[in-house]
């Protein structure tokens, strides 16, 4: 065997070389470098991040699911009203905490986090531990849904689909990143919030990358 | 399967409740599932589709199928794995349909036309761009094997080809990707040398 092709090397990414192939590799540092590059390429592909779907994807899907009779329940207006209530609580919570952040250098002024939410979102007093647990889980879901909606509203406010006007979207994404960091600080072990944070940070990074590419071009 | 997020028993129980509610048609539960998994679903269909517009359609179709099939979800596998399979199968089927509708032949450039930079942050972008430029057959096999972690036997079943054919396509795809990325590295080095 004189020389190996790139296709033959590609097989060696996850298969052992035959003795003859090993001999060829041993005698050719260029081929070994190529094989390493191919392995790195496969590793990088395996670690590609998830991609954020386009803004508005849910609303389109919601229409189709409703039309197909796959979702029902509360009217959209009623749901929207609740959304807005919870989203408002989140926004106020975030706003309050952001103010706290600014003044965090002063001792004793670190924000209290969820107090504003508790004050704003009304609920029946639970009588038992089971009821309290169910209530916490329900509010947890509502908070997460509101955070997701907050992302949607912020991106809609930025007035752009991903890929358009990236510089205008950046401050909105930064606000969302700050808000999500606060949520993650308050719930450090929560897998959903952590994965949401990862998604927001990915979005932030993609946007910065996009801006840097635009600047390059 | 790669990318499976870890789940505590508590979050599994919450997810099971969400799924039960979604089965009953609770839009809010469906929305929560969507928010949680949309990026993973979109990522796999986007890579199979090769462009954003098509990917959006494929993602919608995948979600509709998944919500329709929710009552058949027994919880033997993780919900994320189950949903992922539906997304992959749905996108592959859509590609097949699309292919029979219009046989498209996209010329494949040897070098990815991405502006060179020296940072690692561009690697993902280069990879995504190179993936988009692979011929359909190679792209599907490379995505399923190297990105999604399918075995050749699983790929064979999903694509209706033999495991051997899957392997051969994979090696060609890896080599083609390497040639494209090598071209990119060369132009990046050129820029680096030029700026020094």
Give an overview of the whole structure.
The complex is a heterodimer of chains A (217) and B (196). Chain A is built from nine helices and no strands. Chain A has 217 residues and is mainly alpha-helical. Chain A starts with 5 loop residues before the first helix and ends with a helix. Chain A has a domain at 74-216. In chain A, helix 5 (76-102) packs across helix 7, helix 7 packs antiparallel against helix 8 (166-186) and helix 8 (166-186) packs antiparallel against helix 9. The model of chain A is unreliable at 74-81 and 95-121 (pLDDT under 50). Chain A has helices at residues 6-11, 19-26, 29-46, 57-67, 76-102, 115-120, 129-158, 166-186, 191-216. Chain B is mostly helical. Chain B has two domains: 1-104, Rna Polymerase Sigma Factor, Chain: A, CATH 1.10.1740; 107-196, Winged helix-like DNA-binding domain superfamily/Winged helix DNA-binding domain (Arc Repressor Mutant, subunit A), CATH 1.10.10.10. In chain B, 73% of the residues lie in helices and 0% in strands. Chain B has helices at residues 9-23, 27-49, 52-69, 79-101, 121-132, 136-147, 152-159, 163-195. Chain B starts with 8 loop residues before the first helix and ends with a helix. Residues 1-5 and 104-119 of chain B have low confidence and may be disordered. The chains are: A mainly alpha (217), B mainly alpha (196). The interface between A and B is large, with 58 and 62 residues.
Instruction: Give the low-pLDDT segments of chain A.
Output: 74-81, 95-121
- Secondary structure: number of strands of chain B: 0
How far is the N terminus from the C terminus of chain B?
Answer: 44 Å
CATH class of the largest domain in chain B: Mainly Alpha
- SSE string of chain B, helix = H, strand = E? HHHHHHHH
Q: Report the principal-axis shape of chain A.
A: elongated
- Give a count of the beta strands of chain A, DSSP E runs of length 2 or more: 0
Helical run tally of chain A: 9
Quaternary structure of the protein? heterodimer
Relevant CATH superfamily of the largest domain in chain B: RNA polymerase sigma factor, region 2, helix turn helix motif
Question: Which fold name is given in CATH as the topology of the largest domain in chain B?
Answer: Rna Polymerase Sigma Factor, Chain: A
Instruction: Determine Rg of chain A (CA atoms, Å).
Output: 25 Å
Radius of gyration of chain B, CA atoms, in whole angstroms = 19 Å
**SS-based class of chain B:** mainly alpha
